[in-house]
Amino acid sequence: MAAEKNVTFESALAELEKIVRQLESGGADLDASIASYERGMALKKLCEDKLKEAQTRIEKITLGNDGAVKTEKFSVSE
Fold this sequence. Notes:
This protein has two helices and two strands. By secondary structure, the protein is α+β, with helices and mostly antiparallel strands.
């Protein structure tokens, strides 16, 4: 999946949504469904990795007690 690193989050998510719709329709045979499921899992991981990467790049801007502007690392738990 090394070539997948050039895939955007949005295109990976769109493909994943398409796969989910196909699987939910139940129209594919078992082998095609398994292949689609495996591709979907790879896309899910790719999306998760891209979100984690974006999260590490985000900083939260805050105003300190002294009135100075400072930045802090973003935390999901906030």
